[in-house]
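Case study 2.
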Amino acid sequence: CVMMENGKMMVMKGGTTTEMNKEMTMSNGAVVMTDGSVKMKDGSTKQLKNGDCVYMDGKMKTGMKKDPMTRKTM
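Prediction:
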């Protein structure tokens, strides 16, 4: 998924987390921008807050937390 963490967009893939450096299009057509804005396929936009996550299928989850020891979502 991609997640807003401390004001930065992060990509979590295969157990590693890296900073998001380009926009990503999810499988449902939603486009996630590096500033945390999400443009849905219907044209509406949403702004992610710290802890908000967008999965690769485009579904959103709010308020996720990471375990600081493992940097994995709990």
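The CA atoms of residues 38 and 46 lie 5 Å apart.
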